[in-house]
Write a structure and sequence with these properties.
It is a single chain. The protein is of the alpha/beta class. The protein has 2 domains: 11-38 and 282-371, Aspartate Aminotransferase, domain 1; 42-280, Aspartate Aminotransferase, domain 2 (3-Layer(aba) Sandwich), CATH 3.40.640.10. It has helices spanning 41-55, 67-81, 96-107, 124-130, 148-158, 178-190, 247-256, 264-275, 277-300, 321-330, 351-371; strands at 28-29, 90-93, 113-116, 134-137, 162-166, 194-198, 222-227, 240-244, 304-305, 312-316, 333-334, 343-347. Strands 2-8-7-6-5-3-4 form a 7-stranded mixed sheet, sandwiched between helices. The longest helix has 24 residues, at 277-300. The N and C termini lie far apart (55 Å). Bound molecules: pyridoxal-5'-phosphate. Pyridoxal-5'-phosphate binds next to helix 3.
């Protein structure tokens, strides 16, 4: 009965695989850059209380504009980065992926252009595809920094409405300096474009490294996106947000969001988690020091490691990345095959998980060396 029906999928989506990393039960998961620690029990209690408080009113639609949450998020950024952002310049959605989708919906579109700097986040091309925005790739330099003269030239020449930079970058971990970001913001402004700095991993940056939030005062055309999925250990709750240099940006995003896109439960638990940001900060400190420990251990063992400001490391280089990835997986640890040829990416886990990863990698390499 169903056999002669072919769903009328958009021509450009026919045969396209959906985004997604493997979700394997029972393995040590070091593949999607989550915070490896469960939420502390005092935070769990606060989330349960917050959920209970809103449960009675779930017959009503939530606050469409998430005012309380956007105000809390601005307060968090003030503490975290020392930058004051007016709540009217804040935006929030179900993950920073949705925030960026909103940005491309509002500012991209047919006849418009966006620029990215690969190797970078694999979702950027998908936002462009979904919104019929033309995407131009400006490859990074061999050390994974942005090739600034080339980037400035391309922006001036192609006049993108949106320039998307992840800093720290995924999958390489590379941080882009504030000076370089300011240069990109300046040329973008010259062509009436927006610079989006995706700071999904900002909380893991080394001490003394500034956030791109510092550009907001000078550049109304900058948007900094953040997420609670990584440092906050809140990936399952789905809360991403943005701070913009101009309130007109948040106004434009309001136009394209679906009605009541953030559930009352999401808003309530996110507010409760933000109230406990300082408790969660202890986990971030441990993850940062584990990142640096893993980095040293990998370098000492003779691997190339891309300098990382994030909670993951890209390391290599391997002649057979698929084989190494599979052998590690066979021993119960899931890492990620992503990025340039010859490299693999591992997320920073708990100290035990990191030890297990290091000894497994060592074992896999020994075995492979004996065989060859
Ligand atoms: C993980 C990640 C995000 C955040 O995704 P959420 O939708 O907030 O969970 C955004 N950008 C990059 C580069 C990431 O790696």
């Amino acid at each position: 009965m169903t056999s002669d029906f072919i769903p009328p999928v958009r021509q450009d989506l026919v045969g396209v695989a959906p985004y997604g990393a493997p979700q394997d039960e029972g393995l040590v998961c070091l593949n999607v850059n989550e915070n490896p620690f469960p939420l502390p029990s005092e935070v769990v209690d606060a989330l349960a209380d917050a959920t209970r408080r809103v449960a009675r009113d779930l017959n009503r639609y939530p606050d469409r504009d998430a005012i309380a949450l956007r105000t809390r998020l601005a307060g968090y950024l003030a503490t975290e980065s020392g930058v004051l952002v007016d709540p009217t310049c804040m935006w929030a959605a179900n993950g920073s992926n949705e925030v960026m989708h909103h940005i491309l919906l509002a500012f991209g579109g047919p006849g418009r252009t966006a620029v990215t700097f690969p190797p970078s986040y694999s979702m950027y091309p998908e936002y462009a595809r979904d919104t019929f925005t033309r995407l131009i790739s400006v490859p990074r330099a061999p050390d994974f920094r942005i090739d600034l003269p080339r980037a400035e030239h391309e922006i001036a020449d192609r006049r993108p409405v949106v320039t998307l930079v992840a800093s720290p970058n995924n999958p390489t971990g590379t941080g882009i300096s504030l000076d370089d970001l300011a240069s990109l913001a300046r040329v973008s402004r010259g062509v009436s474009g927006i610079l989006v700095v995706d700071e999904a991993y900002a909380e893991f940056r080394h001490r003394g490294v500034p956030s791109a939030l510092e550009l907001l005062g000078d550049f109304p055309n900058v948007i900094v996106t953040r997420t609670m999925s990584k440092a906050f250990g809140f990936a399952g709750a789905r809360l991403g947000y943005a701070a913009a240099g101009h309130p007109g940006i948040a106004e434009a995003l309001r136009v394209v969001r679906l009605p009541y896109h953030l559930s009352a439960i999401t808003q309530a638990v996110a507010c409760a988690a933000l109230d406990h940001a300082s408790v969660l900060q202890a986990q971030v400190d441990l993850i940062r020091s584990e990142r640096d420990r893993l980095d040293t251990a990998l370098r000492t063992a003779g691997y190339d490691v891309a300098p990382s400001e994030a909670n993951f490391l890209m390391f290599g280089r391997f002649a057979d990345t698929v084989g190494v990835w599979q052998s590690i997986r066979d021993r119960g640890i899931l890492i990620r095959q992503v990025g340039p040829e010859g490299w693999l990416r591992v997320s920073v886990g708990t100290p035990d998980e990191n030890d297990r990863f290091l000894s497994t990698l060592h074992e896999v390499d020994e075995t492979r060396r004996e065989r060859s």
